[in-house]
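Thread: Newbie trying to understand structure tokens

Hi all, I'm a second-year student working on a class project, and my supervisor (Dr. K.) asked me to get a predicted structure for one chain before our next meeting. I've only ever worked with sequences, so writing a 3D structure as a token string is new to me. If someone could post the tokens and maybe explain what I'm looking at, I'd be very grateful. Here's the chain:
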Amino acid sequence: MGFIETVRMNTGLGLFLSGNLVYCFDMSHFIQIKTVLKEEQHIIAALNEMGLECRTGEDLFVESWENTKVKVDILIETGSKYKIGLKKVNDAYDIVADWWAIESFTKIRQHSFIPKLNKLYAYSVIKDQLKEQNLVIESEQELENGDLVLMVSERA
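---
Reply by user tm_fold:
Sure, no problem. This is what the structure looks like when written as tokens:
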């Protein structure tokens, strides 16, 4: 299974995923996506690699089209009033956003944002693990399906 496990909306609806994204909408527009993204520094590294500004700290909120607010731990700027947030739930972060508003007022699309975040998060984790094992990336190749092949060797 990938980094995304379930989708929960504030209505309480839960859908299980098996490799594909599920798109659900309700009148609130908020969608909360459960992930297994656990380490803040790797989330921030992935967001930076995506060219997105983010903030961490207290009193951060994402807002829906209907002005409903949800408190988050990481706030991602989108270039509009509508932001994307990551909210710590137990030992992982949920992605919280009004995807209808974000897709209406920005160029960010849920179907591409989430897989890219997952891929870059995994890449950041792998780079740290390789460093801890005294390994260095010699080359990288992205396959047609988007998978990344890394050739590694021991540091000299």
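A couple of things are worth pointing out once you decode it. The first strand starts at residue 4 and ends at 9. Residues 1-27 have pLDDT under 50 and may be disordered. Feel free to ask follow-ups in this thread.
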